[in-house]
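Bench log. Compound arrived from synthesis this morning; before running ITC I wanted a structural hypothesis for how flavin-adenine dinucleotide sits in the protein. Inputs:
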Amino acid sequence: MSLLMLADERHCTGCCACVDSCSHNALSVYTAEDGHLYVAKDSKKCISCHKCKKVCPVMNGIEYSSNVVSHSQPYSVICTNDDLYAKSTSGGAFAAIATQFISDGGYVCGAVFDSNSVKHIVSNDLGDISRMQGSKYLQSSLEGAYKEISSLLKQGKKVLFCGMGCQGAAMYSYFSNNKNRNLLYIVDMICGGVPSSFLLGKYLENERRSKQVVGFRKKGKYTLLCKNQHDEIEDLSYNNLPLMGFFSGLTNRYSCGDCRFCGVERLSDITIGDLWEAAKTEKKQKSVAIVHTPKGDELLQNTQDITKRTTDWNFIRYNYRCVVGKTMNNYRLQRILLAWNFKHLSYKTLCGMYGCSSKNPIFILLKAYNCIYRKIVNVYIRIRLNNIIRHLSEK
Ligand SMILES: Cc1cc2nc3c(=O)[nH]c(=O)nc-3n(C[C@H](O)[C@H](O)[C@H](O)COP(=O)(O)OP(=O)(O)OC[C@H]3O[C@@H](n4cnc5c(N)ncnc54)[C@H](O)[C@@H]3O)c2cc1C
């Protein structure tokens, strides 16, 4: 009998570390009825070696993050290379660091569009950085990336990984006993959660003028960018299922609704995110880069195309997802009935239900209810934030 234990659907982050760890091909990735990636096991192939459990950041109980700071330091960062800056989501911290890393002989692992889905690739080609730039509001598949990184580390190559907190934790776990672990640099991101792939799938199925998504954001402006049938890129603004559904958080993975990989202190080398605090007063969008380790410090010091300044922890007031993982969305009806809704309801109903503007009185009422609900949850978030900020400023 197989004793293989995988994280269940409420806790699995879809990081795929277990899949890459299995040398008997007993594990495979599938898209479940809620549009998220999960892992299935083939009991006949499993030899109960428990490698999968050891690398799983949920099952191995790794303490990846905390809101108690002992050595992490936040910086406000802006990329001074205009081309790199323009294509980045915020201040271009990732592009500047990655460009330097490849120029110094290393490899970078980052998320790129693969038709209408997203996957991580590993590359030492500077031309691939522009494909990695930009936030893609879809889960990126890491299947195969761990094996590729493992082989590069074995050859003595340096590798820089950039992904979400749960993916950073998975990288950390996967390589914790690797003898070339010091060659791996982990940059994780502040993350508001990944939405169901059904949002974009339903959109493209019904809005026939768009055939392929190419972006979700232009700096501080959230907007869906799609290629039309003539291969022209159209700016479709934000009142659509992919973006409104993303903002609502109501289709996120269950693990995102109770994320245990956020916090001001992490086991990654650097955490990057949007510096919304600066966006309120300054023209240029900035990134925040929280340096956690001497390796993270080395990365930032070595990067030529950036200006950086130390900043205080106050930025988390404008970016609560850096520190608060619980959102209550897991207990909302739209989330609980997600699989059923996407199977049975019309596109128009789904749009109204997941946040697009609608003239239908039921959806106007639902939107008002959602607003009130969010305001109540925000009180809880504010209290949590104030406690965390008070604690940090005492340091
Ligand atoms: C789903 C999602 C939710 C986010 N939520 C927040 C948030 O709540 N608060 C916040 O401050 N920042 C959030 N971010 C990060 C933010 O949008 C910027 O990526 C960050 O500010 C870094 O900007 P940049 O200009 O340095 O780099 P960018 O040009 O944005 O590139 C950063 C990196 O993002 C990686 N990336 C892009 N999409 C994905 C993906 N789907 N999965 C894994 N990696 C990906 C790329 O590989 C690249 O390495 C989120 C990003 C994503 C993808």
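What the model suggests: The domain at 65-194+254-322 is CATH 3.40.640 (Aspartate Aminotransferase; domain 2). The pocket of flavin-adenine dinucleotide is lined by residues 88-95, 110-111, 118, 132-138, 140, 162-164, 189-192, 194, 272-274, 287, 319, 321 (CB under 6 Å).
ITC booked for Thursday regardless.
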